[in-house]
TrEMBL record:
Top-rank taxon, per record: Eukaryota
Region (Disordered): 1-22
Binding-site residues for Zn(2+), renumbered to this chain: 82, 87, 164, 169
Keywords: Kinase, Metal-binding, Transferase, Zinc
Bilayer-crossing regions: none
UniProt feature coiled coil, ranges: none
Protein name as annotated: MOB1A kinase
Length: 219
């Protein structure tokens, strides 16, 4: 989000996919501004909490869009190092390998390279975010009954992009001097999913040590 605009000038701000914009002047835009203001205070545990009187679904929706944009940008900085040759499988270290299925176009999980997997994943997320019945942008349009389960699936999948970057491309991230940006973004993401219990602990296993380290620094 714009939380990082101070540093983005120094970086190529190429994103992997088009950025998803929250309409200016909307209530969701106000929520995003609130999120950025509280992030600025540096207390991430507090920053992720549901603001008083706000709708939980809307808060999760705004933050999910923001995480999509952040991950989009982070992955965009390392796409040239994430190739069919370097990453023939979508993995997060030797013990975790992901196969792609979205339940509609691809029903049986397929093995594919990391760039292909991440392309499928980010395109799928983008389609969910653009679906007005799932992510209504208009005031007063209710969120669907299955919103929370969709949001959980999106966040679970976005986590896999962080996991792949940390396990397979951290040296490139360091060379690009992006590690502070990656760590802040990931810490924000983890505190958010922990606050609302959005991702199963088993899914977080590939980055368990890092998650524990981030958590202990903050108590």
């Amino acid at each position: 989000g714009m939380f990082f605009s101070a540093v983005s000038g120094s970086r190529s701000s190429k994103t992997f996919k088009p950025k998803k914009n929250i309409p200016e002047g909307s209530h969701q835009y106000e929520l995003l501004k609130h999120a950025e203001a509280t992030l600025g205070s540096g207390n991430l545990r507090q920053a992720v909490m549901l603001p008083e009187g706000e709708d939980l679904n809307e808060w999760i929706a705004v933050n999910t869009v923001d995480f999509f944009n952040q991950i989009n940008m982070l992955y965009g900085t390392i796409t040239e190092f994430c190739t069919e040759a370097s990453c023939p499988l979508m993995s997060a270290g030797p013990r975790y390998e992901y196969h792609w299925a979205d339940g509609t176009n691809i029903k049986k999980p397929i093995k594919c390279s990391a760039p292909k997997y991440i392309d499928y994943l980010m395109t799928w997320v983008q389609d969910q975010l653009d679906d007005e019945t799932l992510f209504p942008s208009k005031i007063g349009v209710p969120f669907p009954k299955n919103f929370m389960s969709v949001a959980k699936t999106i966040l679970k999948r976005l986590f896999r992009v962080y996991a792949h970057i940390y396990h397979q491309h951290f040296d490139s991230v360091m060379r690009l001097q992006e590690e502070a940006h990656l760590n802040t973004s990931f810490k924000h993401f983890i505190f958010f999913v922990q606050e609302f219990n959005l991702i199963d602990r088993r899914e977080l296993a590939p980055l368990q040590e890092l998650i524990e380290k981030l958590g202990s620094k903050d108590r």
